[in-house]
Amino acid sequence: MDLDLLLVIMTYFNQLPQKPANALGVFKSLERLKEAYSKLLEVVGVVLTLPLTTCSNERFFSVLTRHRATRETPSAYIADLKSLSLHKERAFIDVINVEANIPLTLEIIALHNYAFRIKIQEKNGLRKRYQVENALVREPETAPIILLEKKDDHIVLGLDAVNRMVIQGNPFRLDLFNKDGHVITMNGRGMFKFEHYRTRKTL
Predict the structure, then answer these.
(1) What are 89-140's pLDDT values in tens digits?
(2) Are 125 and 33 contained in the same domain?
(3) Residue 60, CA distances (Å) to 57, 65, 164, 198, 201 in order
(4) Less Cβ around it within 10 Å: N or C end of the chain?
(5) Are 23 and 97 contained in the same domain?
(6) How many CB atoms lie within 10 A of CB 158?
(7) For the chain, counts of helices (H) and of strands (E)
């Protein structure tokens, strides 16, 4: 007898609420097991004949596979520093995906506790992107944002000369500094990726 089949039979009998009392009971139990096993094979056979699709063919999984395929390469995003616009405690800059030619809007919000809040969304999306609301008890208190320096390849924004943000144009990169020095870098390895809305492909 096949060892795997023997293990299945032993497991089956161990899980029975009442063990067979005689040879006839064992025989009937084996018949029921055989019948259940045959039905299982029929179901498995049907499943195996169904047309299966790969993950890359499905919308949700294609998003995951695209991001999983991201490697540390030169960034596909550049910041159009000439598009900078300041509005009291907010700054707006266009960030462009040069591979897909998709313009994004980088929104920088200065907060009173020497912090920055960053939002990125499509500038001309196919539809309005959902914005999470009521996640906080109240919106963080904002503070005026200042343009400290503007060059061809970078600009510097800040709350003051110490708490500042350096935005590099090509490739797009963002560095934050405080009184202790450099704090964090965004897109330092060129792996930033924004999943823009796409039109549904029809067959």
Answers:
(1) 999 999 999 888 889 999 999 998 888 999 998 888 777 877 777 677 788 8
(2) no
(3) 9, 9, 38, 12, 13
(4) C
(5) no
(6) 21
(7) 3, 9
Q: Are residues 41 and 80 in the same domain?
A: no
Number of domains in the chain: 2
Report the C-alpha gap between 161 and 170 in whole angstroms.
24
Residue 44 sits in which domain range?
A: 3-49
- Any idea what the CATH number is for the domain that residue 179 is in? 2.60.40.1760
| Tokens describing residue 134 | 């009521």
Do 122 and 35 sit in the same domain of this protein? no
Task: Please check whether residues 22 and 119 belong to one and the same domain.
Answer: no
Q: For the sheet containing 90-97, what is the strand order?
A: 77-87, 90-97, 102-111, 115-122
The CA–CA distances, whole Å, from 2 to 6, 23, 80 equal 6, 21, 70
Per-residue pLDDT tens digits for 5-30: 544 555 555 555 555 555 555 556 66
